[in-house]
Amino acid sequence: LYDVMIIDCPPGRTISSDIAVEKADLVLAPINYDALSEWGMERMQLLFEKQYGGKAWRFVANRVGKSTSTVDRD
User: Fold this and answer.
1) Cα–Cα distance between 59 and 37 in angstroms, integer?
2) Residue 73 reports pLDDT greater than 60
3) Pure H helices in 3-74
4) pLDDT band for position 64 (50/70/90)?
């Protein structure tokens, strides 16, 4: 019925987020661009590879600090 559906799940692994990821064609994960987020992205990448196989997913920076260089922003 729909071309695009956006489901906003709480951070972390919950039953609702697991179901949403399993059913999705593409998962977009919003992040803040900082050192902790880099660690989280690595952990999430491992989880997606291990648990969801070839599931398509991307990170989307929802906040970028003024001090972040233009090279890092790309």
Assistant:
1) 10
2) no
3) 15-23, 35-51, 70-73
4) low
Residues near 27 by beta carbon (within 8 Å), at least 6 away in sequence: 21, 48, 55, 56, 57, 58
Q: Identify whether the C-beta of residue 31 lies closer than 8 Å to the C-beta of residue 61.
A: yes
- The single-letter DSSP state of residue 28 is E
- State pTM to two decimals: 0.61
Q: Are 28 and 58 in contact (CB under 8 A)?
A: yes
Q: What is the pLDDT of residues 2-23, one digit of tens each?
A: 788 887 777 777 888 888 888 8
Q: CA distances (Å), 21 to each of 28, 46, 49, 54, 57, in order?
A: 10, 15, 13, 12, 9
Residue 6 CA, chain-centre distance (Å), reads 13
Look at residue 70 in the predicted model and tell me its pLDDT: 55
